[in-house]
Amino acid sequence: ILVNNLGYKLDNVVLEKCNIKELGDFQVNFAMKLAKEYSKNPRDIATEVVNKLDDRFVNVNIAGPGFINLTLSDAYLLEYANNEAIDFKNNIDKQDDKTIIFDYGGANAAKALHVGHMRSPNIGEAMKRLCKLYNKNVISDVHLGDLGRQAGMLISEYREMYPDSPYFDPNYKGEYPKIDLTVKDLGIMYPRANLKAKEDENKMAEVREITAEIDKGNKAYTELWRQMVELSKVTIKEVYDKLNCTFELWNGELQSMEYVDDMMKILLPYLYPSEGALIMDVKEESDKVEIPPLIVIKQNGATIYATRDLATIYERMKEYNPDEIWYFTDERQSMYFTQVFRAAHKSGLVKEETKLKHFGFGTVNGPDGKPFKTRDGGVMDLSTLIDNLKIEVDKKIKDNITGKEREEILDKLTIASLKYTDLLPYRKTDYIFDPVKFSSLDGKTGPYILYTVVRIKSILNKTDIKDTKMTLIPNTDTKDIILKLIELPKVLRITYNDASPSYIADYVYELCNLFNKFYNNHNILNEENEKIKETYLALCNLVYNTLHNLLDILAIDEVEKM
Ligand code: ARG
Question: pTM of the prediction?
Answer without folding.
Answer: 0.94
